[in-house]
Amino acid sequence: MSDTAEQGAGQTADEARPEQLTEAERLLRRRVRRINAYRSAKRTLARLGLLAPLRERLSLLDGADTLYDLDEPSDLYGNGIVEALEEKVAGLLGKEAAAFFPTGTMAQQVALRCWAGRTGNPTVALHALAHPEMYERDAFREVSGLRPVQVTSEPRQPTADEIRGFEEPFGALMLELPLRDAGFVLPTWEELTEVVEAARERDAVVHFDGARLWETTVHFGRPLAEIADLADSVYVSFYKSLQAFSGAALAGPKTLIDEAKTWRHRYGGAVFQQFPTVLSALAGLERELPRLPEYVTHARVVAAALREGLAEAGVPWARVHPEVPHTFDFQVWLPYGVDELSEAAIRQSEETGTALFINPWDEKGPGLSMTEVNVRGAALEWTAADVKTAAADFVARLREITG
After folding, report:
1. What is the per-residue pLDDT for 50?
2. Rounded to whole angstroms, how far apart are CA atoms 181 and 74?
3. Can you name the residues that pair with 329 across neighbouring β-strands?
4. Neighbours of 317 (CB within 10 A)
5. Is the CB of residue 115 less than 8 Å from the CB of residue 269?
6. How far is residue 101 CA from its own chain's centroid?
7. Are 245 and 52 in contact (CB under 8 A)?
8. Which of 75, 173, 210, 375 qualifies as a cystine partner to 379, CB 3.0-4.6 A?
9. What confidence tens digit (pLDDT) does each residue in 285-343 have?
10. Sequence-distant (≥ 6) Cβ neighbours of residue 369 within 8 angstroms
């Protein structure tokens, strides 16, 4: 064994020099640096629960006695506080009933399986970038006997003409609102109603993948219940917008929800006790839901300032997508490699205490990368000038790295 090899053999991934790391070790080291830099930053556009330490996450339950009577018996297999949350969600979405699920993956499989039994057609029309196609390992097909077909792969919402002209029958149309992997994009209200009408013309039911539906009211200019009323069933998440620990709900007609609870048990979703998660969901509905419109409005200020700041700093090309965000999340595209952008973002957080870009960068082509920007309560302290200053500082560090 050479001196170099012997030295490397006794080192951890943290201690090893960059040239001694495997690609997996290098990426892990970058991820740890990024998260540590974000956690220690004094300023950031979002404080995301998924990156917070346990102590901070548990503080979400402070004041839980204002959310639910803590002298009531604990829940067992979905009763008590779980039923209280279900009733609250059904009311918010204007549906007859709702069922709590541990995951959205389970909730949507159950919903569409139930609809397939009613329509007699297991084919589900959806976008190629929809969550089940991108992240669920073919669960619709492999677990639930459903047959997903892709209406379009374009980075936008499906159109009414595409629904009407699709070449084969389908029992259900699933719409992800907003469509995350296309840039958290939404249709206009008119486009959405036309798409729903086109599906109805084909005798299909409409299901909303509304993991982030809570944040769509500003864009649509409609209350939640009116938006949800367009669909036969709606799934919502409690952690993506509302910062809860986890959990989801399926809302729709009572007959559908009654059947869904039977399938929830069969899928392993009848969890013994869920009160911590349910309390965190109630906290999100009470504390975060009323603030979401303010976040969306401020995201538009941040996006405009970021676009202007990058241009003023001399970046040869940059894209903020959508140009006017539809929700409080959006994409930023820059003509640099992932390694350079990641290092610049981490150094800015470490050295200045300001974390402008906290999410990973993804390669989208040679010398082209994209990241997602999240705007939450922490961003409300940022003015447009603050965003421009941070963008200029980021670009300066990027130039140091790229030479």
Report:
1. 84
2. 39
3. 374
4. 10
5. no
6. 17
7. no
8. 375
9. 999 999 999 999 999 999 999 999 999 999 999 999 999 999 999 999 999 999 999 99
10. 333, 334, 336, 337, 338, 341, 361, 362, 363
- Taking phi first (over 0 means left), then psi (-120 to 50 degrees means alpha), and beta for anything else, what does residue 266 get? alpha
Instruction: Go through the chain and tell me how many residues it has.
Output: 403
Q: Which helix H or strand E contains 225, and what residues bound it?
A: helix 224-228
Eight-state DSSP code of residue 205: E
Question: Which tokens is 6 given?
Answer: 């012997």
CA geometry: angle 42, 45, 48, nearest 5 deg = 90
- In this structure, the number of other CB atoms found within 10 A of the CB of residue 188 comes to 13
Cβ–Cβ under 8 Å, residues 97 and 232: no
3-state secondary structure of 371: strand
Residue 190 neighbours by CB under 8 Å, 6+ apart? none
Residue closest to 160 by CA, chosen among 136, 193, 128, 134: 193
Residue 55 structure tokens? 């102590």
Give me 158's structure tokens: 């499906």
**Which structure tokens are listed for 253?**
């007609």
Tokens of 113: 């399986």
pLDDT confidence tier of residue 15, bands split at 50, 70 and 90: low
250, 98 Cβ separation under 8 angstroms: yes
**Which residue reads 């057609």 in tokens?**
121
Residue 73 phi/psi, 5° resolution? -60, 150
Single-letter amino acid code for the residue at 137: R
